[in-house]
Write a structure and sequence with these properties.
With about 110 residues, this protein is α/β, with parallel strands linked by helices. Helix 2 packs parallel to helix 5. It has a single domain, classed as Thiamin diphosphate (ThDP)-binding fold, Pyr/PP domains (Rossmann fold, 3-Layer(aba) Sandwich). The longest helix has 15 residues. It contains five helices and three strands. Strands 1-3-2 form a three-stranded parallel beta sheet, sandwiched between helices.
């Protein structure tokens, strides 16, 4: 949750790959709170362009367009020197369906 470590990693010449799970929200918190019946308040927000942000520190940035791209992009980043940031769009709606609705339906006492 503190992106300034990118500067440290670049300055120290570390070889790292970081995945940013980008849902423009505190998505995991949001779907857990929804499952507990709490209202959605203050959990959605805008993000910077993580690619440009990484590049502003001298790192390399990539945006995943499909899950099929991930294995090859990971191989590329892991075999290259430097700091690599991969922006991964995340949709937690499937989590809500499976981990809240379906799980609740299977565990309810009749």
């Amino acid at each position: 949750m503190n992106s300034q470590e990118i500067e440290t990693a670049v300055r120290l010449g570390l070889d790292l790959v970081v995945l940013v799970l980008n849902d423009s929200a505190y998505g995991m918190i949001k779907w857990k709170q929804t499952g507990m019946g709490f209202p959605n308040f203050g959990l959605d927000y805008g993000n910077p362009d993580f690619i440009k942000y990484a590049e502003s520190y001298g790192a390399k940035g990539y945006r995943l367009e499909s899950t099929e791209q991930l294995p090859e992009l990971m191989r590329k980043c892991l075999s290259s020197k430097g700091f690599h940031l991969i922006d991964v769009p995340i949709d937690y709606s499937e989590n809500e369906r499976v981990l809240i609705e379906e799980l609740k339906a299977k565990t309810c006492i009749l």
